[in-house]
């Protein structure tokens, strides 16, 4: 009788764990270190069920002024649940090797308040999991400030080149579509 009572909670834990794991889309599995912080961002815990814009950034890229537009986009839609994640990368040889300098560009020069990670690889076999899945669902970034709009189920609904400004009607339309998506 005691064995049966012990087995029930164990079975419930297995089902609860598999349900939770099933709710986390592949895109959001794993974690990334937050820029200039001692914490890591558990992508699933932080972003599951939320509309998301993911951008690979570079401090010394000619498109770096887009940080201001990205911040404006975030401020415009954050109260509706939009999350924005910037992932610095030196894959195109335009990011600082020093995280402190990257943080200065983002936080001081451009006033970024959305989530930024430590620099990561975003292309090829060594790309972080997030960008491998983004590439599988759409395409790998072709340059810095490549933008992905992800719905609440963790599916890319649109991606945009570096030339697409954060306030472009096409990007805004995709963000609003992601906001309207069902969890």
TrEMBL record:
One biological process term from GO is:
cellular response to oxidative stress
Indicate yes or no for the key word Oxidoreductase: yes
Positions of the Thioredoxin domain: 6-180
Presence of keyword Signal: yes
Task: Give the signal peptide range.
Answer: 1-21
State the Gene Ontology terms under molecular function: peroxidase activity
Which residue spans adopt a coiled-coil conformation according to this UniProt entry?
A: none
Task: Report the domain of life of the source organism.
Answer: Bacteria
Keywords recorded for this protein, A-Z: Oxidoreductase, Peroxidase, Signal
Q: Which InterPro entries match?
A: Glutathione_peroxidase, GPX_AS, Thioredoxin-like_sf, Thioredoxin_domain
Spell out the family assignment given in the record's similarity comment: Belongs to the glutathione peroxidase family.
Q: What is this protein called?
A: Glutathione peroxidase
Organism, by scientific name, is: Pseudomonas chlororaphis
Organism phylogeny: Bacteria, Pseudomonadati, Pseudomonadota, Gammaproteobacteria, Pseudomonadales
Gene name linked to the record: gpwA
